[in-house]
Write a structure and sequence with these properties.
3 helices, globular, CRISPR-associated endoribonuclease Cas2, metal-binding, Virulence_VapD/CRISPR_Cas2, antiviral defense, single chain, about 100 residues, about 35% helix
Length: about 100
C-alpha cells in the first residue's frame, strides 16, 4: 500500500514558514519520498501500518493550511500515468523483499 500526502501550506509569516519546514522535515524523517512539490508518498506493508502512519501525520500536522491523505494499493499506484516527463529517483521504493544491487 502507498500513502500519499498532499499539502498546501501558507508561507506568509515567519511562523508559517517554520511550520512548513517542520512538517516537510517530519515527512522526510518518517520515510516519505517526494513525488512532486507538496506531494509525498510512503510505502507501507498493510492497513494497520497505514493507520499508524496516518495517526503520526495527524499528530504532526501544521495549524494552518490544507493537508490531505490518500491510501492506495500498489496495483492502483502502478497505474499512475505520466502525461509529461517521467518518474526518476535514486531512492529504492519497491515492495520486493530482496534487492540485489
Amino acid at each position: 500500500m502507498r500513502i500519499l500526502v498532499f499539502f498546501d501550506l501558507p508561507v506568509l509569516s515567519l511562523d508559517q514558514r517554520r511550520d512548513y519546514r517542520n512538517f516537510r522535515k517530519f515527512l522526510i524523517k518518517d520515510g516519505f519520498i517526494m513525488l512532486q512539490e507538496s506531494v509525498y508518498c510512503k510505502m507501507v506493508l498493510n492497513e494497520s501500518a497505514a493507520k499508524a502512519v496516518v495517526e503520526q501525520v495527524k499528530k504532526n500536522r501544521p495549524e494552518d493550511g490544507l493537508v490531505q491523505l490518500l491510501t492506495v494499493t500498489e496495483k492502483q499506484f502502478s497505474k499512475m500515468e505520466y502525461i509529461v516527463g517521467e518518474y526518476s529517483t535514486e531512492v529504492l521504493d519497491t515492495d520486493q523483499r530482496l534487492v540485489i544491487l
